[in-house]
Amino acid sequence: MEALDIARWQFGITTVYHFIFVPLTIGLSLLVAMMQTMAVASKDPTRKDAWMRMTKFFGSMLIVNFGIGIATGIVQEFQFGMNWSEYSRYIGDVFGAPLALEGLVAFFLESVFLGLWIFGWGKLPERIHLLTIWAVAAGTTASAYFIVAANSFMQHPVGAALNPETGRAELDPSQGSLLAVLTNVTTLAAFPHVVSGAWLVAAAFVTGVASWHMVRHHNKAREIGLESPEGHDHHLAARDLFRPVVRFGVLAMFVSASVLVISGDFQAQIMFKQQPMKMASAEALCDTETGAAFSILAVGGPDAFATDCDGVTHLIEVPYVTSLLATHTVDAELQGVNDLSAQYQEQFGETVTDIHGNEVAADYRPNLFVTYWSFRLMMGLAAFSGILAFWALWLTRGKGENARTTGSKLFGWFAVLSIPMPFFANSAGWVFTEMGRQPWVVHPNPDDPTVRLMTTQAVSSHPAWMVATSLIAFTLVYGVLAVIWFLMMRKAALKGVPLPKRDATTDELDTPTLSFDY
Description:
The chain is mainly α. The protein is globular. Helix content is 66%, strand content 7%. The model has no long low-confidence stretch (mean pLDDT 88). The chain has helices at residues 3-41, 45-82, 85-119, 126-155, 177-182, 185-224, 229-274, 276-282, 321-327, 337-348, 368-380, 383-395, 409-418, 421-435, 464-495; strands at residues 160-163, 168-171, 289-290, 294-300, 312-318, 333-334, 351-353, 359-361, 440-442, 453-454.
C-alpha cells in the first residue's frame, strides 16, 4: 500500500471512531438540559425528584462520553498538518477559520460550563445552575455548526479564490469571504441533518437504557410482590422514574426523525446539483436515465464487491423514485456514472499530477460498492429506532394510575440492541459523504471550479512505513480506549438510580449526588 492509501485509512478509522462520541454528546447534552428543566420547573416534589434523578443518571454518562470525545478529537486536527500537509497548505487559510471559531467559541463554551455544571450542584442557585447545562448544549451544537461549515467547504467551496502566485485558496472579500463559508447553502442543508441525527442517537440511547431499567424494575416488583414495601418501591421506580423517561425519549425520537427526513430530502436535492457523481454512485445509476428508479438491491456482476459499473445489475428497484428525490418530478433526466466520468475527464483532464510530480490517470468515479451500500445502511439502520419508538409507545400507554409498564424481556433486549444502531447509521452517513466525494478532497463548485483539489494531490510526502506506524499505534491506543469507554458507560448505565427514600423527620425525598466513582 502507498502512503496515500494508508493515510486515508488512518483518517477514516480515527474519524469514524471519534464520531462515535460526537453525536451522543451533542444530543445527550440537550436531553439532559431538558430533563433538568422539567425538574426545576416542576412544583410536584415527587415529579421534581424523579426528573432530577434522571438528570444526574444520564449526566454521569454524558461526562464520560464528553471526556473521551475530547481526547479522540484532538487527533483529527493534528492529522491535517501531519498526513495531509499539502491539503493544509492549499486550503488552510479557509479551512482553518471555522475550525478556529469552533475552538475559540464552541469548545470553550461547552467545556467551561460543563465544569460549572459538574461542580456547581448545591453551590450555584438552582436556575443559574440550570443555565450552565443549557450553555453546554448550545456549545456542542455550535461546535457541530462550525465543523459542518468546514466540511461543507470541501463539498462545495464558496467565499474563496485561487491565488495564482501562491497556488493557495484564500478567503476573498469579493466572494463573500468567511461569511459566505459560514452561510454556505451546503452547510445550511447539512447542519440540521447532522444535528437531528445526533438527537436520534441520544434519544435512542436514553430510550434504550430507560426501557431496560423499566423492564427490570417491573419484573422485580412482580417477583417480590406489590404488597411488600420493597416490591411497591420497584413498581414506583418502573412507573414513575423510568417510564416517563422512556416516553420522553420516544418523543425526542419522533422529533429528530421528522427533522432528519425533511433535511435529508433537501440535502439530497442539493447533492444532485453540486455532486451528481456522488448521488449517481449512491444509486448505482451507471447510465443516464429519464425517470430514474430507486435501487433497493443491486449486485456488481461476478464480483459482489465491484467498485465500478462493470456488470451492475439492479435486482429490486422502485420506478421513478430517484428522479423524484432529485427534483421532486418523476420524469427528470439524471446523469449516470459513465457519462459523468467522461464529462469530468474532458473538463478536468485524463491525468493529474500527484505530489511527486508524476502524471497519473485520473479516475473521477468513487468506490461504487462503498457509496451504494453506505447510503443504504444510513437509512436502513434507522429502522431499528422506528420499531423501538412505536413498540415502547404501545407498551407504556395509559395515564395516571393506569399508566402501563412492561416486563417483556424481549422488548428490554431489543431496546439495548437498538442503542448502537443510530451510531452505525451516523457513521455510515459520513462514510457515504466522504467516500462519495472521492477522488476530490475539495470538490469543485459547478459554478466556479477553480478552487479544487484531488486527494492524490493533498497527502504529505511521507514514506509509507511512517504512516503505517502511526496507523498501528492509533489503532492499538483507540482499541484500549474503546474498551475503557465501554466499561465505564456500561457501569454507569447498569448502576441505575437509587430508589426514592424519605427522611423520617422532614418527609422530604433524598436526591442522589452526581457520581464520580469511575
